[in-house]
Amino acid sequence: MQPRHRELLDQARQLADSKVKVEFSGDIVIMQASPSAIHQRNLSNIRRQFDAHVPDGYIATENSDLESPAISKLRNPDLTYLPEEAMTTTDSALPAELALIAVEIVSPSNPENDWEGKVRDYPLMHIPLYLLVDARKKTVTLLSEPENGRYRLREDAAFGETVHIPAPFGFTLDTSRLLPY
After folding, report:
1. Which residues lie across from 105 on neighbouring strands?
2. For 64, what's the count of Cα atoms within 13 Å in the CB-facing half-sphere?
3. CA 83, CA 133: separation in Å to the nearest integer?
4. Is the whole-model pTM more than 0.90?
5. For the chain, what are the domain ranges?
6. Which tens digits make up the pLDDT trace of 26-72?
7. Residue range 108-124, pLDDT digits in tens
């Protein structure tokens, strides 16, 4: 990440308190308020299912900074899975290309960040799977197979339906317990 970008990010973090999430994409700093109880409940439901299928040597982490310095991107997914050895640093930013998936519960106050900005950034950051849970629309979308800066495959489901989560997790995600906003 360029020194100017790092300085912008550090300034944004100084302004933010622990209830604000800070991300960086290109020359834009994105700050969001803490999530709602429904957001946290839906995330917990999704995480329990992924935790039962996580590959050996990987652990779940929520709200960790994933960084791709070569393309000036720093994103903070609601949930991701990283190698345990990557989690032995005091750095707050971790290499994005190590993430197995990015899971986002779409923010009702800024859905464009999840549906546009992150759909653009995550494949560029080499994150192989992107799961969007949109409680406003009662939908779940899985994007996969990043190639040439975009995801090639998309699977959509309504709350109550299932979504096939491919390897390395390899399971069927049950969405019947997700709550709408």
Report:
1. 133
2. 26
3. 24
4. no
5. 35-174
6. 667 666 666 789 999 999 999 999 999 999 999 999 989 999 999 99
7. 988 999 999 999 999 99
Task: Show the tokens assigned to 132.
Answer: 């969007």
pLDDT, greater one: 21 or 145: 145
Please give the CATH topology (third level) of the domain spanning 35-174.
tt1808, chain A (3.90.1570)
